[in-house]
Write a structure and sequence with these properties.
binds magnesium ion; 455 residues; 14 strands; eight-stranded mixed beta sheet; four-stranded antiparallel beta sheet; alpha/beta; binds iron/sulfur cluster; 13 helices; 29% helix; binds adenosine-5'-triphosphate
């Protein structure tokens, strides 16, 4: 990783928040080289074998390993995500917490491959996702499941276009095709198979197989995520029409109404015909969730899904997400800086600080036995009803400059537990229980758990 590092001289200048024009040009030149290479890699045509992989643990649906996502700016390379490793077991909710700017959204955008290029790039690492994809024939077409009669003989039916109109041949006779099995919404069924894709290696245009269909994202601000000039119905139908081969408008509408019902919208037909500005914030977030469910995803990434909502609506949306996870047997990656939300929702918690994971474990381990001084600080800064103090606890100091990260513990300047050994290199991840990991020198000894109990 040989990026143009600023010389000692320039480092001194950067302390003065100043880079000369010559230095900026040198950084830009080096950045352009790397960005061009990464963009070319994303645009390449590649056979599927090149981006297929295996899960390390078959119980996982997502495994992120040593992920590095960078922004190439004229001031230098911002290592927004700097070696992140975690997994999401199937059927579970994993929460990512950390203060603003620690790289939570960049992690989720990397998984969706939505980093804004050419500046934002996945630089290295793996993102393995267990998908349930259409099985394809040698020409790459999905293989239909036929709906034959009781004697196993093919049955034929009229072909309809997207708007449900019967297609006719030159002589005005209806065109027919072999009848295919359909699900309860009337959508045609195809043979499916499980495949593990390495998202970090996928060419961009292959991502349509996963994005919106197998992995869906719910964003923080539903107003900006919905298109103001299309009706809710239009936007919901689009997901089905895009992802289900041969789906008609009529089938898509049936599915959209069902999804609006599922997310607790009382008058789905009315909302289906409304524009986003006609709905309240809570309704819009429900619509976003319905849209996420439309593709029948295996993983939902919810980035601050309740931050823009008031507390009562927040509780409703969290209830809804919790219920949905079970009904669709999916998994949720929940990103928030709200520890209360994490405590209510998550099975596992990942704590991030300055682009790295500093602690991860089960929700109970992180809430009842936090070990990293930062996690302990986060817990203390949570307001409680029984607190006798007038002021809230805050963690003093700031996160280091993301362009010039130090090679020692990033939390050192803010840590009250700092020891002599903390002046050494960045602490390694230490396992303190089968599910609990922490990156802090306090727990680096022979028996980390014992150290943990002492601290
Ligand atoms: N387009 C960009 N160009 C340069 N740096 C960026 C860009 N987008 C994000 N970053 C940097 O990446 C880092 C991580 O940002 P990210 O959005 O992931 O934070 P976050 O943890 O989601 O914070 P929040 O809780 O505020 O949403 C930040 O230091 C930010 O400055
Ligand atoms: S490694 Fe040292 S400085 Fe860093 S969090 Fe642990 S105790 Fe604090
Ligand atoms: Mg964010």
């Amino acid at each position: 990783m040989n990026f143009k590092k600023k010389s000692d001289d320039s480092a001194k200048k950067s302390e003065k928040h100043y880079l000369s024009g010559k230095e900026i040009r040198a950084i830009a030149k080096e950045n352009n080289k790397v960005m061009r290479r990464l963009e070319k890699y994303k645009r390449r045509k590649a056979p599927e074998e090149e981006f297929l992989g295996e899960m390390k643990d078959p119980a996982d649906i997502l495994e992120v390993e040593d992920l590095h996502s960078y922004f190439f700016t004229d001031q230098g390379v911002v290592k927004a995500v700097n070696g992140v490793t975690f997994s999401v077991p199937q059927g579970s909710t994993v929460g990512i917490v950390g203060e603003s700017g620690c790289g939570k959204s960049v992690t989720s955008m990397s998984i969706m491959r939505l980093l804004q290029g050419p500046q934002g790039q996945i630089y290295s690492g793996s993102i393995r996702f267990k998908s349930y994809d259409f099985k394809r024939d040698e020409k790459g077409k999905p293989i239909p499941i036929w709906d034959d009669d009781e004697n196993g003989e093919p049955v034929y039916e009229e072909i309809k276009d997207r708007h449900g109109k019967v297609k006719l041949d030159k002589n005005g006779k209806p065109l027919t095709e072999r009848r295919q099995k359909r699900d309860r919404y009337g959508t045609k069924l195809y043979e499916m198979e499980e495949k593990v894709f390495d998202i970090a290696k996928m060419p961009t245009k292959e991502m349509y197989r996963l994005r919106g269909r197998q992995i869906a994202m719910i964003f923080q601000e539903p107003m900006t995520s919905l298109n103001p000039v299309f009706t809710i119905g239009n936007q919901l139908d689009e997901v089905t029409l895009l992802h289900v081969p041969g789906a008609t408008k009529e089938e898509a509408k049936r599915r959209s109404i069902e999804m609006l019902n599922l997310v607790g919208i009382a008058m789905p037909e009315r909302v289906y015909n409304s524009y986003p500005h006609e709905l309240s914030g809570g309704m819009r977030q429900r619509v976003m969730i319905a849209m996420a469910l439309e593709g029948n995803p295996r993983l939902i990434i919810a980035d601050e899904p309740t931050t823009a909502l008031d507390v009562t609506i927040q509780a409703q949306i969290l209830d809804l997400l919790r219920g949905l996870k079970d009904s669709i047997n999916g998994s949720i990656l929940l990103i928030t800086h709200d520890l209360g939300v994490i405590a209510e929702m998550a099975d596992y918690v990942v704590v991030m600080y300055a682009g790295r994971i500093i602690e991860q474990g089960t929700a109970s381990e992180i809430f009842h036995h936090p070990m990293h001084p930062y996690t302990i600080g986060l817990q203390k800064s949570k307001p409680t009803m029984d607190s006798e103090s007038d002021s809230l606890f805050n963690i003093p100091g700031n996160v280091p400059n993301p362009i010039d990260m130090p090679d020692y513990c990033y939390f050192r300047e803010r840590c009250s537990g700092c020891k002599e050994m903390c002046y050494g290199e960045y602490p390694k991840m230490v396992q303190v229980s089968p599910t609990h990991w922490v990156a802090c020198h306090l727990y680096g000894g022979e028996n980390p758990k014992e150290n943990a109990d002492e601290n």
